[in-house]
Input
Amino acid sequence: MSGSRLEPRRTADGSFSLFSRDVGEGFHSGLGALSEARAKFVVPAQLERWSPGGTLQVLDVCVGTACNTAALLEACNARGLELNWWGLELDPEPIALALADPGFCSQWEPETLPQLAEMSSGPQMLWGDARSQLHQLMNSQRGRFDLILMDAFSPSRCPQLWTVEFLSGLAALLLPSGRLLTYCSAAAIRRSLRLAGLEIASICAPSGLLKQANDWSGGTAASPSSLEGATQLRPLSPMEEEHLVTNAAEPYRDPSGSSDRAMILRERQKAQAAAMAAGGVEATGAWRRRWGLSSSNHQ
Output
């Protein structure tokens, strides 16, 4: 992505973001990049689970402008926690644009910016296709991560990073008490996380961060351990559980680890058609009608 393909944007809370013309999607919710980072990643991480002086091992998947990492870094600094940080990112341009933007820089405490610059240029910032870089992490860091921040472009735009294979690889990196956190509530992603052996829960984001008044979730948390009773998380509702047995829950698949977007989407469509023909799943439209949902808010 060249710089000309990335358009700086200001979100509703005044924070800096980017829009990718190549992908056709913004890096954050237009309602608030910083608000989203805090509500969907920092708060459900429950940093109070660690005592001051502790160290968290964190993986930021699709670092982008590093807003999620910066928000987490400041929250950890406030609690006396250290980060052993890793990042996966294809393109160095977004964080370079962010660090050069006065508005972005003004969002953070003065000590945060040098830390971000150091992290993004260090050996644990893994540049390139996240699928290939994930193998390096699985070989050296399996079962060691406390938190994984999963913030790739949406599954329909970037299915390569939402496949059951990729998500299973991320799951393998988690400690038993670790958490994967994502803004995404799509049925295919939640089903894939379950196929990867993780327990899942909905993130209770403030309603102001939801696209529609009747959207049901602020995102998804997943862990090898039970998330029952966790702060800012709730069990999936009956509606959400039924979503996972509709046609929408067909996973994205990439057995080779190198398929392009078009192939992954095409193969998923074939699998969806086969499942419907076999009568094993409910049409997503029927599920929407039963729960009074419009086609625009099916997540």
